[in-house]
Amino acid sequence: MRSIEHGAAFFGTLQDEDGHWPGDYGGPMFLLPGLVITCHAVGCMDEVLPATHRAEMLRYLRNHQNEDGGYGLHIEGHSTMFGTVLSYVSMRLLGAPRSDDACRAALEWIGARECGVVGTPSWGKFWLALLGVYEWEGLNPMPPEMWCLPYTLNPMHPGRFWCHCRMVYLPMSYVYGKRFVAPRSEVTDQLKEELYASLGGYGAVDWDAARSACASEDLYYPHPFVQDLVWWALHRSEPLLLPGGCLHWMRKRALAEAMKHVHYEDENTRYIDIGPVNKVINMLCCYIEDPNSLAFRRHKARVPDYLWVAEDGMKMQGYNGSQLWDTSFAVQALAAAGPECLDNFAPYLRAAHDYIDRSQVRVEAFGELGDWYRHKSKGAWPFSTQDHGWPISDCSSEGLKAALTLAKLPSELVGESISPARLAECVDIILSYQNGTGGFATYENTRSYPWVEFFNPAETFGDIMIDYDYVECSSACMTALAAFREQHPGVRRAEIDRAIARGKDFLLSIQRPDGSWYGSWGVCFTYAGWFGIKGLLAAGETYESCAAIRKATDFLLSKELPEGGWGESYLSCQDKVYSSLDYAHIVNTAWVMLALIACGQMKRDAAPMHRAAKVLMGLQLPSGDWPQQSIMGVFNRNCMITYAQYRNIFPLWALGEYMTALKEAA
């Protein structure tokens, strides 16, 4: 109990005055360069990124350079051409000279590869082309005409893609279609000389051959032959769409259509946009359309939403934060400590309650949703803030569970409960997310077929083309529906029962023969194991009744480290095979504890839980904090991302459940 109280006291000091827990959501190394390149291209560097910001960004880039001189896709990854080229370009644009030690080492890394700079993946080529240090002819096409194709009976319409995919390729297609190139400058002239020296100079590059070039370090998703054939055909027809071509009228119409969707996204998210990549490209699109526009000015004002400064420097985050997500987990973690701690924790819970209340999406996105390929939003909870507003299945579910948790506590301590009518709106959203498979995807229903992934143009990321079903999203929705059903048994009971039963069948169908589930949003099998077991428990199964739970338990127990606890490497995510760390990780350990305690491990054999609790308490710092260990978040299979607050939330939660189980066993 002392460990929980000490940890919560420290955690409470991190809470913002509006009730959420701010935290570092960085990790990917390709986000900051996009912002730096865009600011240089449109001439707003000094306005948006003043000297102090640029100094901190340089410090960040220097701190995350690998020993070989390169940069990874993310801060813990091996060196890649994508990370190294964009980091080098960023350092030069931020004011570092070529002679700078970090610049020199990065340039040597690039030059040492046979493919050189043209081996950067397609996203890197895009940034280089608009900067004016690469030719658009060396890029596989990103035709905006896709947005003019019919949606009905067309599985390849971008409106059917996963929303992050379509929201990135939407503004990319506009910039590509316009063939925008930043004004020539002294530094871009220098970059053309520096980056291409190992290839015999800029003029020696075969741009047609460069289109499909990709460094071996970056090639996570090789293009199948059918995709290369499509790119070849589109590339050959591209001159017809350019000014002077007979089909240029189609390009003009397509650009206008794409820009309509850019503006819709901007206005619905208050110029935050769904993520950092499309944020800066949307900003560039607004500049290209009209440098003096109100839209461009509004974009510049919201760039700080994505910036985070920490001990390693200033970075661009993977979202405008993880505010609602972390706060929902924090509420459940603090409440798990039981009534003995409630008086001490009440101020934190009351403030968090206010934040959760204010963050629910209360107004539907404007316009006819189908025209903009949007899922309904009203009643949902977002990942970050109400301004951002994109609804997500698991965020809505964790927000709902947090609200229901708070509703069970005394209102004089934690504030008035959110009304049942508003909670029912969230239930309506959650039910709407279920796919025909019985599973739940992320932002929307699955709108196309897995074979569309054959046309994934991003060599670096996997499974980006459609919104797939996930064990995490499915379990979160099932547990939220079960919690709502417990408090409001008369509301949509039959629909909720049916949804949970179908969700259970989906979880059983995707469990691996060894009892594990693959995690797509956290590292990895330990994270998914927690969700998988909790989902089956929400469906009414038990350890005794369900072979799948027993197999999942056996799998997790088999990965326990000799000294107790669990530690899983991010390599599990990219390789899709369990990869153990050689030390206990507080977050993995907590996830496994939460899974095993929930299915009765303390009654069967408490020894692994005792060892795990000892590990968590032993790793706690004198301040009450826990140390930041290796990265624990992931997206698109191959890119890791930081959830800084996980190191406090999940040990508190696991120890709280452990204490409750100890009391029940006494």
UniProtKB/TrEMBL annotation:
<dbReference type="GO" id="GO:0016866">
    <property type="term" value="F:intramolecular transferase activity"/>
</dbReference>
<dbReference type="InterPro" id="IPR008930">
    <property type="entry name" value="Terpenoid_cyclase/PrenylTrfase"/>
</dbReference>
<dbReference type="InterPro" id="IPR032696">
    <property type="entry name" value="SQ_cyclase_C"/>
</dbReference>
<comment type="similarity">
    <text>Belongs to the terpene cyclase/mutase family.</text>
</comment>
<dbReference type="GO" id="GO:0016104">
    <property type="term" value="P:triterpenoid biosynthetic process"/>
</dbReference>
<dbReference type="Pfam" id="PF13243">
    <property type="entry name" value="SQHop_cyclase_C"/>
</dbReference>
<dbReference type="GO" id="GO:0005811">
    <property type="term" value="C:lipid droplet"/>
</dbReference>
<dbReference type="InterPro" id="IPR032697">
    <property type="entry name" value="SQ_cyclase_N"/>
</dbReference>
<dbReference type="InterPro" id="IPR002365">
    <property type="entry name" value="Terpene_synthase_CS"/>
</dbReference>
<keyword id="KW-0677">Repeat</keyword>
<feature type="domain" description="Squalene cyclase C-terminal">
    <location>
        <begin position="322"/>
        <end position="659"/>
    </location>
</feature>
<protein>
    <recommendedName>
        <fullName>Terpene cyclase/mutase family member</fullName>
        <ecNumber>5.4.99.-</ecNumber>
    </recommendedName>
</protein>
<keyword id="KW-0413">Isomerase</keyword>
<feature type="domain" description="Squalene cyclase N-terminal">
    <location>
        <begin position="8"/>
        <end position="201"/>
    </location>
</feature>
<dbReference type="Pfam" id="PF13249">
    <property type="entry name" value="SQHop_cyclase_N"/>
</dbReference>
<dbReference type="InterPro" id="IPR018333">
    <property type="entry name" value="Squalene_cyclase"/>
</dbReference>
